[in-house]
Amino acid sequence: MQFQKKTLLGAILLAGTTILSGCVDDGVNGEDASQQTINLSQIATYESGVFDESAAEIVTYDPVNNRTYVVNANNKKVDVLDNSNISVPVLQTSLDLAADFATAGITGTVGDANSVDLYNGLLAVAVAADSKTDNGWVAFYKASDLTFISAVQVGALPDMVKFSHDGSVVMAAIEGEPSDDYLIDPEGQVAMIDISWDGANLNTSLTTIGFTDFNIDGTRHAELPTSKMVLDGYSATTTDNKATVAQSFEPEYIAFNSDDSKAYVSLQENNAVAVIDTATKSIDKIIGLGFKNHSIQGNEMDASQKDGVNIQNWPVMGMYMPDTIASMEYQGKSYILTANEGDDRQDWLDNVVDQTDCENAGYFFGDDGDGARCIDAFSAKDFYDADNVTLVDSEGNPFAETNGGFGEDNELRRLKFSYHTTLAMNGGTEFTSLYAYGGRSFSIYDAETGQQVFDSANDFEVMTANIYGDDFNNDNAENTGDDRSDNKGPEPEALTVGVINGQTYAFVGLERMGGIMVYNVSNPYSPDFVQYINNRDVTVDNDTLEAGGAGDLGPEGFHFVNAENSPNGKPMLVVGNEVSGTTTYYEIQVSEF
């Protein structure tokens, strides 16, 4: 099999590409944010002592009972931290989901706890089944005494749970991730649970919102913005081995607008957001997020992990593929904020070993030395030799013969990109641009029109490179500088917004490099950078890192606490760090001038 990727190394502009970078010039003026600034400072950390086992993921704060609830997927529990002394958080107890289910007579084997949220003394926990393709649950606890109340069975792999602002609804993103052998692929869904809760008695009513109407033979398939999104996935049960749209959709995260009339659901692998009308309990529309053009000024990126800092333009389109999303209001309109992490399906495609089935579904079949298998996360360095892949420039001439004609290691030879999407978007195997995972940024979209009004462009890589030099784009489980440049870069994942004295701030966590980027987004058309804080030590050896001596690693979940609910009267940000297994508290100091 052979394909050609036509490229011109350096800054080029791809014809017919919609360019969205930085702020746009058609926004309206926002309020003057110059009279206030904020600064985050670390005030406390709880250390679980568990490294790289997901011991601290999603967090939520309980101001009434002075507690933080931390999802601990490592032990399939929710850890309860006592914050009576906010400077010294201690483990009070853990919610043992499996034991509580067994006591209540709920059948089924409990798997990981994935998410937690709180409203008015009612705690909701997203709980997967031990076999992730089986139906999971949303479990409810009474926060005051931590007693188990009940559980509502939902679809396969509830990944995130979120209360509406008024507490009348809790929604769960039902990811429907495929089995490890890709023989089973549940449909993605959203579980909408109506809540009646008086502090003692709970009544629930479940509505399941699915996506089958958007399948190829469905009544709404024509509504899909296919030029701005990704439709992929393998199926062992169809004649063409292509997943249905409903199987392809894997809801990841949920945010409500200010009046709870809409819920926004990130469809990460699909580079899209679903908008749900909460009154009709139906899908209003699917917003395709489009693609980021890394060949234009301002959108430079580092494409190789073997060249230190080498941030420049490349003929690459970034698939935003957001994980966490949030919502804010501006002049009567809703806006969606996205942390553009990126994600692929390679974990499950590894186990598809039939070449015909693989290629029918639109993927690449090859052997990089670990055995022949189905490939989406493709890099030229892995497959050029055995699979006769060639790389040419815009004139059809081979690059320098170094490394088999793919260019040097400081070019595009090592970049991981989606073969499936690149093939689809280029209309065949002669590639003029590669479609890579993630946007290496955060973005803001008009929730009604779907227009991107802001993207942080190359800020994250440029800032971290200026601070850390060749140690930028580090991994989160070891100190290896530049290691992630070929694969999603700093990898923004966690995101939340908070309003302080009438001004709105976005907090964005970099999963790989670590740390928190802070922007004033009071005017979503023209945000201002405020601060980057990272307590990670990139100088220690990996033994010290694994022993907890490198600081926080892998920020996964954020929770903003306003001053009124904070234990010390100052706004606070609580961060769950998945790799270091730590929960860290940041005080937000406000300066007016």
Automatic annotation (TrEMBL):
SUPFAM superfamilies: C-terminal (heme d1) domain of cytochrome cd1-nitrite reductase (SSF51004), Nitrous oxide reductase, N-terminal domain (SSF50974). Residues 481-491 have a biased composition (Basic and acidic residues). Residues 54-346, 408-588 form the Choice-of-anchor I domain. PROSITE patterns: PROKAR_LIPOPROTEIN. It comes from the Bacteria. InterPro entries: Choice_anch_I, Haem_d1_sf, Mesenchyme-surface_protein, N2O_reductase_N, WD40/YVTN_repeat-like_dom_sf. Signal peptide: none annotated. Pfam families: choice_anch_I. Residues 471-493 are annotated as: Disordered. NCBIfam families: choice_anch_I (NF038117). This is Choice-of-anchor I family protein. It comes from Thiomicrorhabdus marina.
